[in-house]
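#structure-requests
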Amino acid sequence: MRIKTQWLVFGILVGLLSVALAACGAATTSAVAAAAVPASESYEGVTSVAEGGSTTVDLSALNSARNPILAGELSPVEIEGILFMREEEKLARDVYLTLYDRWELSIFQNIASSEATHMEAVKTLIDRYNLEDPVAGQDVGVFTNPTLQGLHDQLVEEGNRSLSGALRVGAAIEEIDILDLEERIAQTEKADIRLIYENLMKGSRNHLRSFVSNLERRTGEVYQPQYLTQAAYDAIVTAPLERGNAGRQ
């Protein structure tokens, strides 16, 4: 009788242990699945999109989304990427401000304002990782990176020649931004960096759509991509404005 009782108790203990292990495994699986979801898919309201397509980063919402993500040690490539993107977003803002002064077309003013929030989004990474800000104290049209300085000067010269040229410059900047952000995203696994880059890329896709549609509406010209492949360009401009988080409509 005692043996049967012992086996009964043993069976109950084994059953309880199996349930506990299963629950632990389910919790671990859920945690891994949650970690696998891109940070930009885990939060709402990081960006807002105006009717014309200008896409602004809500810094308060961005910080709320980013703060729970642990900061890790940056690689040299990640540091270079953050500093470069800070200046590239400034390039977009500065060119659009200059072209607005030349043509007084609201799309340049509206998207320049959006680009200012994109600059600040990258600045949150500079502050978080205690990096030296390359745009601190720099006036409009002045850059630390000589490649970006040359590109800025070239684009302003092209945009000042004609209104159609200015709108093509706007589209070209957004193409360049998309490609550079894709490259930088591929260089990091850090969720806080990817959160910001993915939402900036969403903004660039929306801004590309806006410049292309404005060019066609105002001049009748059909824009031809200058940097993206035709297939990548077509996939962007034939899709509607993205109003949800990065990667979602």
